[in-house]
Amino acid sequence: SQTIHQWPATLVQPVGSPLSLECTVEGTSNPNLYWYRQAAGRGLQLLFYSVGIGQISSEVPQNLSASRPQDRQFILSSKKLLLSDSGFYLCAWRGVGGYGYTFGSGTRLTVV
Amino acid sequence: RKEVEQDPGPFNVPEGATVAFNCTYSNSASQSFFWYRQDCRKEPKLLMSVYSSGNEDGRFTAQLNRASQYISLLIRDSKLSDSATYLCVVNRWGNQGGKLIFGQGTELSVKP
């Protein structure tokens, strides 16, 4: 069966520090992968999505970047965090020809 | 205007009540529709897909009106365990595959 892993679950980082969040999917190949952010009391905002290795589409201009170095690995990064980067970061995947999305358990990031 | 708009919450209802959530979407290119459930500080999980003919899953009934660009979710005989935030979601297809666009969510609190 397919599973999606995100880590870490919780992260507290100082302003100006770098960030790297990793998401991996098991049990499937060539999934579409997505990064969402949910700010406190807000809805989910799509940040990036990827349909294949090295293919990244950005939805909104921001302080973050994404990479897909392997088929089932999706990484969210920042060189210098801002206070406004705080939020709940969720990775999701959809299989080829699939219908719904499955989310990872998320990383709660607090920038201080 | 947000692409997906939901009833503002929270909805506070007694056990056994029937509660209805409404949602509208603005992009007629939206091609598939879902309701997700999100428990506090957890990732969203798919509750049910929404089909043009309407569909039911136990106590939950979803309806879609493409002409009005309107989606609804009805919960009958509410249980305490139904307390959560309900997210209206549309899948908009493009040349890079589909993207899930989320509404802000409506919080439901079922009281004894």
Written overview of the protein:
The complex is a heterodimer of chains A (112) and B (112). Chain A has strands at 3-7, 10-13, 19-26, 32-38, 44-52, 55-58, 65-70, 73-78, 87-94, 102-103, 107-111. Chain A is an all-beta fold. In chain A, strands 2, 4, 5, 6, 9, 10 and 11 form a seven-stranded mixed β-sheet that branches. In chain A, strands 1-3-8-7 form a four-stranded antiparallel β-sheet, with no helix packed on it. Chain A is globular. By secondary structure, chain B is mostly beta strands. In chain B, 0% of the residues lie in helices and 60% in strands. Chain B has no helices and eleven strands. In chain B, the strands form two sheets. In chain B, strands 2, 4, 5, 9, 10 and 11 form a six-stranded mixed β-sheet that branches. The termini of chain B are far apart. The A-B interface holds A 32, 34, 36, 42-46, 49, 51, 55, 57, 59, 88, 90, 92, 94, 99-106, 108 and B 32, 34, 41-46, 49, 87, 96-105.
The end-to-end distance of chain B, rounded to whole angstroms, is 37 Å
Largest sheet features of chain B: 6 strands, mixed
Shape, principal axes of CA atoms of chain B:
globular
Using a beta-carbon cutoff below 8 angstroms, give the protein chain pair with the largest interface and the number of residues from each chain. A-B, 26 and 20 residues
Q: Summarize the biggest pleated sheet of chain A.
A: 7 strands, mixed
